[in-house]
Amino acid sequence: MAGEIESMASNMRSKMGGDTISSSTPCIFRIPSILRRHNKEAYIPNAFSIGPFHHGEKDLEDKEKIKFDYLQGLLYRTRDPETRLMECIKEIAKYETEARKCYAEEIRMSKQAFIEMLVLDGCFIVELFRKDAGEVGKSENDPIFSTSCMLQFLHHDLILLENQIPWFVLERLFRLTRGSSETKSLLQLALDFFDNIFSSEKSPIQLDLFANQEIQHILDLIRSSLVLPLGEQQGQEESFVSWRPIPSATSIKESGITFRKVRSHSILDVKFSRGTLEMSPILIQETVEPAFRNLISYEQCYPNCPPRVTSYAILLDNLINNEEDMEELSKSGILINWLNPHDTTQFFKMLYHDAFLKEFHYQKLCGQVNEYQQKLWPKWRAFYTHNYFAKPWAIVSQIVAAIVLVLAFLQTIYSMKC
């Protein structure tokens, strides 16, 4: 019996490894099954595998040729393509161990296969960003830019949490292959490529915000582009347990609160002041659900990651209970909906289900709205405006009634003097 116990203890020690807590923190994860079950398609690539998690899947293999075509085009712009390829491989090989540690599970690929995959996928992404921004030319028959669906596939595939490679891999490949005529940084190219995920209008890029930021991968960059413009505002809030939901959009309007569209560098920037809820317009189109779901999953999986995007999803769900709520936000210019209204309403209802929050970043704002809603004057004013000033004939009748009332009052005063 003692021998069996020692054997079991030895087996468990071998599985524990060395340090009690790993010094490296993974940043690329498999989607937890409790989140995946709500919409599996939002988490899997449509056409292109990036990184090891979906590498080699049969329905994605045919797009590997496009990656190699892009790699060849990138290398052939250099003086010595063969030497430049070997330089890329040598550079990434230095960081193989560091790259493996970025994944939350053991990557069962040989050293050669893993490095080749990082170089191929990384060079493909870098070349894609350059072509999209016009930093390098693209042929008339480019396999991505000459078709209507490929860019749409890539806007979906490159934002998936399971479909990432480390940002430092992209940075090193970008520097090694950068041409003398190129003017934009990799950061700027990436932000340009994903500029219309949440908005139909191009917003200026604040590159200075990223000066001291360590970017983990493309999805982390997108999240940072939403969070960093907020600065210190909407900092860590109290426990989620003490939070009281914000009313729906139609209920808010009935209580005298108005909506106002504002221009901001982030859709997460929501303010309430003097009876007005200010929000940046958000575009609801096909890639917005995968974007939100993968950002929420990232916030759930990455240690000590403030749930900023998850909090925003909860706020939207509170505001949108039905199609009337969505119509109210659309009339205010806050919601730009390109999808079926019913589908959009249901999308917001299911967006953050089974996500856990320790803090809610709109708790103070919700408290302000709820407090304002309890006041009588805004409710009376909103009721009177809605019922008596909504139509031209109603406005005229109110003016006539006011004139009659004034004349009757004057006549009474005149009669008393006589």
Treating each run of at least 4 consecutive H or I residues as one helix, how many helices? 18
The total count of strands amounts to: 5
The amount of helix comes to 40-55%
**How much strand?**
under 5%
Shape: globular
Low-pLDDT windows of residues: 376-380
Give the biggest beta sheet.
3 strands, mixed
Strand order of the largest sheet: 1-3-2
Distance between the first and last residues' Cα:
119 Å
Mean pLDDT: 87
Query: Could you spell the SSE succession in H and E letters?
Result: HHHHHHHHHHHEEEEHHHEHHHH
**Overall radius of gyration:** 28 Å
Structural class: mainly alpha
Can you give a write-up of this model?
It is a single chain. The chain is mainly alpha-helical and 418 residues long. β2 and β3 form a beta hairpin. The strands form two sheets. A three-stranded mixed β-sheet has the order 1-3-2, covered by helices on one side. The chain has a two-stranded parallel ribbon with strand order 4-5. The protein is 50% helix and 4% strand. α6 packs across α8. The N and C termini lie far apart (119 Å).
Topology, element by element:
Layout: H1 2-16, H2 33-36, H3 64-75, H4 81-93, H5 96-100, H6 111-133, H7 150-157, H8 167-176, H9 186-193, H10 218-227, H11 249-254, E1 258-261, E2 271-273, E3 276-279, E4 282-284, H12 288-301, H13 308-319, H14 323-331, E5 335-337, H15 341-350, H16 363-373, H17 376-388, H18 392-417
Parallel strand pairs: 1-3, 4-5
Antiparallel strand pairs: 2-3
Helix pairs in contact: 3-6, 4-6, 4-8, 6-8, 6-9, 12-13
